[in-house]
Specification:
Strand content: under 5%
Order of helices and strands: HHH
Number of strands: 0
Number of helices: 3
Helix content: over 70%
Structural class: mainly alpha
Largest sheet: none
Distance between the termini: 62 Å
Shape: elongated
Length: 91
């Protein structure tokens, strides 16, 4: 339990920030899932559009400190590998 007013305020601020960061992380996961669904469906046009959105969401999360930069780089690398496998498939 907080022992001073400033500590109580810090607890309130931390909770607000935690909820905000959680919503951004959840949004990133949603974009990645949409991209993965487009790849598994084999729709290259949709996958390209979702790839751009997913990478942008990961970059924003990393920029604001919600994701570690190495984590963001790893996720983007995985996304690009998924996209390249889709583009290499013969139709």
């Amino acid at each position: 339990m907080a022992h001073s007013k400033s500590a109580e305020k810090r607890v309130r601020q931390n909770e607000k920030c935690r909820i905000h960061n959680k919503s951004i992380g959840s949004g990133v996961k949603t974009q990645v899932k949409k991209f993965a669904a487009a790849v598994s469906a084999g729709d290259e046009k949709t996958a390209n559009a979702e790839y751009k959105r997913a990478v942008s969401a990961v970059d924003r999360a990393a920029k604001h400190g919600i994701y570690h930069p190495n984590n963001a780089a790893r996720q983007k690398s995985r996304l690009s590998r998924m996209l390249s496998t889709l583009q290499q498939k013969p139709d």
